[in-house]
Design brief:
Elements (H helix, E strand, L loop, with lengths): L3 H17 L10 H9 L8 E3 L5 H4 L3 H16 L2 E2 L8 H8 L7 H4 L12 H12 L3 E4 L2 E4 L1 H8 L3 H14 L19 H11 L4 E2 H11 L16 H18 L5 E6 L7 E6 L3 H4 E3 L2
Antiparallel strand pairs: 1-8, 2-4, 3-4, 5-7, 6-7
Length: about 290
């Protein structure tokens, strides 16, 4: 008869085999990999890796980084910037920032809305939110200035540190549902690193966005329940896929220039969004699994 220690070792061995076994629904990642992908994506144990020493020529191609850097340098040049009573950037700064052309707003570019304040332009509003959440600035007496912790890094252009801070805050602390009316608070943001894994694996070839959303849903099937309400009755799957696509590609990865997209067809139900990873995707992250 086996001793208690032998039984314990066998149980531990069985658990270890299960935790490290590739799972089809996880595209070959193991349960252990997925645990880090979900709950600690930037840890040393996670299969997700950020490249070291990303060159300036790559960093120069990341729109959200460039837009935030411009704002941070402007704040540093002025010493401090007076914000509105609602905590927003002043209109002059909003227009100056938008006119740099880092990220264009569809509604503004197509004359649907006009650029008049921070809240009128989602990319600018997002920039201000990320600057706050990232700890780059502090507020005092209705003005914002760079924090001591980041001032030297901005001046000495520690761009990779700034990029990593933006990326980690965007992916984990900023609420992706903030800019839309979808009923799911987690779709896209939950397991965002798994989406990165999918694009790393399949993104060299142009594929429809639904290719990714279906694999994402296969890994996280319970998310579909968020769309089972009267508002989306009969279109739960369509709404899920649209929500995932908009949040993951339009409002996340394209801001970091990690994916390109184009649309075929004009009618809503007949159009197709095609996704491909950019030339700089693999220069920013990779997976070690």
């Amino acid at each position: 008869m086996d001793s208690l220690d032998d039984i314990r070792r066998k149980i531990e061995a069985s658990i270890n085999i299960y935790n490290t076994k590739p799972i089809e629904d996880f595209e070959g990642l193991s349960p252990a990999d997925m645990r880090y992908v979900l709950y600690d994506p930037f840890s040393k144990e996670s299969p997700l890796r950020f490249r070291n020493n990303i060159p300036d020529k790559t960093l120069d191609q990341i729109p959200i980084l460039n837009q935030i850097e411009y704002l941070l340098h402007s704040i540093n040049d002025h010493g401090e910037i007076k914000i509105t009573s609602t905590g927003s950037l002043p209109t002059t700064m909003v227009k100056e920032l938008y006119n740099q052309g880092f990220i264009k707003d569809y509604a503004i570019e197509h004359g649907i809305t006009k650029l008049y304040s921070e809240i009128s332009c989602a990319p600018i509003h997002l920039t201000r939110i990320l600057v706050d959440l990232s700890g780059f600035v502090k507020k005092k007496h209705g003005k914002i200035s760079l924090t001591k912790a980041w001032k030297d890094k901005v001046i000495s252009k520690k761009r990779q540190e700034i990029l990593f801070q933006i990326f980690s805050i965007f992916s984990q602390k900023f609420n992706w549902s903030y800019f839309d009316g979808y009923s799911s608070p987690q779709t896209g943001q939950l397991g965002f690193a798994f989406s990165l894994f999918l694009i790393s694996k399949y993104g060299k070839v142009e594929r429809q966005d639904k290719f990714y959303s279906e694999k994402y849903l296969k890994a996280f099937p319970k998310l579909l329940a968020d769309f089972n309400d009267n508002h989306f009755k009969g279109e739960e799957n369509r709404q899920f896929h649209d929500c995932y696509s908009i949040r993951t590609f339009d409002r996340f990865l394209e801001y970091f220039n990690m994916t390109d997209s184009r649309t075929e067809g004009k009618l809503y139900h007949d159009s197709k969004k095609l996704i491909k990873k950019t030339a700089i995707f693999d220069d920013i992250i990779y997976f070690d699994n």
